[in-house]
Amino acid sequence: MRIGVDIDDTMCRTTEIVHEYIEKYAQEHHLNDLDIMNDEVLKREFFETYIEQIYTNAVIKRSCADVIRRLKNKGNEIYLVSARSDTFFTNTKHHVLEITEEWLKKNGIVVDQIILDAFGDKKAEICKKYHIDIMIDDNPFNYQKILEKGCKCILFDDRAKYSLDENYATNWIEVEKVVEKNYFDFFHRK
Ligand SMILES: [Mg+2]
């Protein structure tokens, strides 16, 4: 099977590290956290300054590397499909792809393909275009759009924010179980 995997808040703790760096930036500039997120100019400057450190230092989620390795060893293809994009930054020195590749290497993760710029409606379209059999994503908007395209999706919800669903996982061990259930269905279709 070809398994699609979102990166931010699915593989790693992005929201948490963004908040850590916002606090740091706020202290440096004598602002408060909300001032930054509510001001488009400050927000842009914050991300321009810290995006590299955020993506580099984001902590991988428990069992993510092991589960991806096991899924790959079973012959599945792993396609990372992410909204990360150089187009969000005027400072082109960031090279989000390279930063992401370094992060994967550091965490011992090997994948078959990395597809970036999958923001807005594009993620669901990419899932269809690349024949992703099952996508794993923490964003309920993506989840819904992917299902509408007739693809399967596991909603990764480790903060228990959304409603329960058959294809719902709160950690990577559960992801593995849901994928395996779909794996069985995939190869035993009549
Ligand atoms: Mg995400």
What strand line-up does the widest sheet have?
Answer: 3-2-1-4-5-6
> What is the CATH T-level topology of the largest domain?
Rossmann fold
User: What is the percentage of strand-forming residues?
Assistant: 5-15%
Structural class: alpha/beta
Shape: globular
Radius of gyration: 17 Å
CATH superfamily of the largest domain: HAD superfamily/HAD-like
Share in helix: 40-55%
**H/E element order:** EHHHHEHEHEHEEH
* Overall average pLDDT: 91
Q: Can you count the helices?
A: 8
Number of beta strands: 6
Main beta sheet strand tally, sense and closure: 6 strands, parallel
State the low-pLDDT regions, or none: none
Task: Describe this protein's structure.
27% of the residues are buried. Helices cover 48% and strands 12% of the residues. The chain has a six-stranded parallel sheet with strand order 3-2-1-4-5-6, sandwiched between helices. It is α/β, with parallel strands linked by helices. The mean pLDDT is 91. It has two domains: 2-12 and 60-187, Rossmann fold (3-Layer(aba) Sandwich); 15-56, no CATH class. α5 (96-106) links the parallel β2 and β3. Magnesium ion is lined by residues 6, 8-10, 137-139.
